[in-house]
C-alpha cells in the first residue's frame, strides 16, 4: 500500500470490503482540573482495525478519518511514538513529549480537536487499549502494546466516534492500530539506530514464512531503546517483544494469536512552573546528584516559608519544594490476544477477540514534605547544612489485570444494507499501594530497583474493580453508488467499586514521618448510557469529490487511580477537618458521567496532482467534571463536581499538491474555539466566572507543513509545526508561548547488497532549529496564577542515524 500524502486523506480503495470502510471520527477533551493548594511532592501519580489488502496505487481516508500507512510511518525516526506520527500528519492533532522518541508516558500529551489521549478510544487489532495516558491503570499504551515497526498502519478518526471501536473513555473519536501480518516468505529484518545523548535502538524480526499446506505462519520480534536524559542524571530504557501467529481455517476463516511485552523505565524530567522555566532556564531539573542541596531545599520547603539564600525574588517557597532529589518510573506490561474471523455463510461474518492484559509499575520519587524518622527532627545549621533528613522516597506499587472479550457479527442484508452488531465485556482489577522508604543521612536511594512488595512503610492501600459492558448495533445503507448512510447506537455501562482499603497516616505521624492528610475514601459509582446514537453520511461523486457529515453522542465512564490523585471521584477529596469519605458520599448523590454531542461536516477532493479537504466541527460538552475547592475560606475543601458546560467550534483545512512524480507538498491549518460556559464556580471561598474562557492547555491555532521528495532510492522529508499560545489557567491569565518546531529526515535505499535486501541508511534531526518551548502539560490547572508545576520543557535538537536490512 502507498498513500497519496503523509498528511492528506486520499482515495478510498475500491477493493476495500464493507467492514473496512468505516468512518471513525474523533476528538478529545482537556484533562485539566482545578485543585486546592496542598503540600506538593514528587511521588509520581497520574493521572481495531483489520488487515487491509489493497491492489491500487493509493489508499486514502474515508469520511472524517485520516489513514497513515506503514510507508508514511517510515518517513520518521525509527521507534517514534505512533501518536507523534499521527500528530505530524493529522490536522487538529498535537503531540508533545520530553524525549525525541516520544516514549515518556509521564511527559506526553496528545490532543485531537480539544480532547486528550485520555478521552479518545484506542484499539489494536480490535483489542481495547484503554486510556493512553500516564500509567496503565485501565489499559496499555500503544508504545508498550506493540513495537512500532510491527504496526502495519493506523487511522485517526476525527469526527464523532465509532460505534464498533470499544472504549469506555472516549468522548469524541478513536485511534485504531493494525499489526502487520507475518510474511508468506521466510526472512527477517534488522535495524540499528544511534543518536544524541548516547541513544541507540535495536530492532530484530524473524518471519517463518508459510510452514505447511494449511498456511500457518508467524513472526517474532525484539526491540531495545536506550538513551541518557538530555538534562539531569539517569536515562531511559525500553525493552519490547512481539509475536504473532496466523492460522487459516479452510477458505472461510482464520485464527490469530498475538503477544506483546513492554518494559519501560526511566528517571523522570521535572515539571516546572512558567516562572521556573524562565528564571532557571531550559536545563533546570531535579537536584541529583547534589544530595546536600536536596536536603537543604527540602528543609526550606517543609519547615519554613522562606527560600534558600540567593533565590529571594526568584523562586517561591512552593517552587523550592518542587525541586526534589529525583523521580522515576518503571512499567512492565504483557498483552495477549486470540482473535478469530469466520465467514459463517456467504453473507454473515463473525469477528471474535479474547484478550488478557497484566501490568505492574513502580512510580515514585523524593517527597520533600515528609521526614525520614531515624535521624531525628531536622535542623538548619549556620553554614547552611541540614541535620537529619527532611525528605524520604515515596514509591507506589501498582498492579493491573484486565480480562476481556469482544464479539462482532456482520450481515450483508438485502437492499444494500450492511448490518453490524457486537458487544464487549471487560473486568479490570487495579491495585495501588503507596509506600515510604527512608533516605540515608549522606546518600540517597536507588530509584529503579530493590523495592519489593512488603518492604518500606505502608502509607495507604487502594484497590478498584470495574466491570464494563458495551453493545452496539448499526446499519450501513448504500443508497446509491458512492452514497452511504450509517445509523446506529451503542449502550455502555461501567460499574467501579473501590478506593481506600487501609490508611496509615496517623501511625506514620506517630513514628516521626511528619505525614499529612491523604484523602481516604471508598465506594461504588456507575456510569451508564442506554442509547447513544450515531449517524454518518458519506457521498463520493464525480470521481474526485466526497462530502460527509457525522453526528454522535458519547459518554465517558468515571476515572479511578488513587485516593490522592486529582481528576477522579475517589481522589484528593476533603481535608483534615472535612473527611474525604463524607465528601465522596455527598458527591455520589449528584455526580453524572461526562457526555458530548459531536457534529462534523466535511468535503474532500482527491486527484493525481491535488488532494484537499476541509472540515467544520462543533461539540457540546455536558457534565464536565473537575476537582475543585468549594466552601467558604474557613471551611474550604476539595470536591469532585460538575463545573458546567463547554462548547467547541473548530475547522481544519489541508491541501497536498504533487506537481510531479515523487514530490508532495502538504499544508494544513487548524482553528479551535473551545470555551467554558460555566457562569460561576466556588473556589477557596470566592466565586469566579469561566464563561467565555478558552479551554486550558489547547491552542487556538495550529499549522503544519510537510515536504516529501522521493527520487529513485533517495527520500527527503521536512516537516514543520506551529502551535499557538496555550492557556494554563481556567481564567486564562497565564499562557505558555506559541512555538515553531521542525524535523528533517533523509533516507537512501541501496537495494540488494549481497544477501541483504532493502539495505537502507537514514538520518534524522528532531527539533531542527533547537526551539526552547513548553511541550507537555500534565495534571491539574490552576484557576489563576502561575501556581502549578505542571509544564514539561520539550527535548532540544537531536540527531539520529539508522541502518536497516531485510533478509
UniProtKB/TrEMBL annotation:
Organism for this UniProt entry: Gluconobacter cerevisiae
Domain TonB-dependent receptor-like beta-barrel per the UniProt entry, residue ranges: 298-768
Domain TonB-dependent receptor plug, chain residue ranges per copy: 67-173
Polar residues bias: start-end ranges: 27-36
Protein name: TonB-dependent receptor
Family that this chain belongs to: Belongs to the TonB-dependent receptor family.
Pfam families in UniProt: Plug, TonB_dep_Rec_b-barrel
Renumbered residue ranges of the record's region Disordered: 1-49
